[in-house]
Amino acid sequence: MGFLHYIISLLTTHPSTNEFDDTVVQPDVIILRDKSKLDPKGRGIIGAPDMVIEVISPSTTYNDRVLKHKKYMEAGVKEYWIVDPEHGTLDVYLLENGKYYSRTYGGDDVVPTLLGLDILLEEIFKPDDWNTADDSELSDEA
User: Fold this and answer.
1) Which of 97, 102, 117, 126 gives 20 to 30 Å between its CA and that of 135?
2) According to the CATH classification, is domain 8-130 in 1.50.10.10?
3) Please, which residues bridge with residue 54 across strands?
4) Distances (CA, A) of 130 to 55, 125, 141
5) CA separation (Å) from 89 to 4, 54, 119, 133?
6) Which of 19, 80, 4 is closest to 48 using CA atoms?
7) Is there a contact between 51 and 23 (Cβ–Cβ < 8 Å)?
8) pLDDT band for position 23 (50/70/90)?
9) Distance, CA of 115 to CA of 27 (rounded, Å)
10) What is d(CA 50, CA 90) in angstroms, rounded to the nearest whole number?
11) Would you put residue 108 in left (φ > 0), alpha (ψ -120 to 50) or beta?
12) How many CB atoms lie within 10 A of CB 137?
């Protein structure tokens, strides 16, 4: 089974240097409510999606927390989530007046979204539902 990847071209001009930035990023999840942002040639989307979700791991933490955070803010992504499965937390960044304001959620918090949904965080990080197959279940000899 193949994976569907959305590539976002974040076409912005850096405010302090006035240099054009045509960075391309691949978020883990995007939510796009404006169909006109879909590239007519099927290459992804143009501009900023309404919401981006990144699921971090030790190898992607710097990119997601620093590099992509900055790019999404400059491009105008209204809501940016960083999901940390290792620590069971969710950092939510909301864009106001060109700057992100954040809140960290964990435990049994209810997370509101700009889309009008409320997410019960403990349902996302509920370990009983995760695939916990041990090596014997994955073996050909089992």
Assistant:
1) 126
2) no
3) 82
4) 15, 9, 23
5) 26, 12, 13, 24
6) 80
7) no
8) low
9) 18
10) 18
11) alpha
12) 9
- Report the share of the chain in percent with pLDDT over 90: 26
Single-letter amino acid, residue 132: T
Rounded to an integer, what distance in angstroms lies between the CA atom of residue 83 and that of residue 96? 21
Per-residue pLDDT, averaged over 32-38, amounts to 84
**Domain residue ranges in the chain:** 8-130
Average of pLDDT values for 22-42?
A: 80
pLDDT tens column, 52-73: 999 998 898 998 999 889 888 9
Structure-block tokens of residue 141 = 């000899």
Tokens 């969710």 belong to: 90
* Amino acid identity for residue 30 in this structure: I
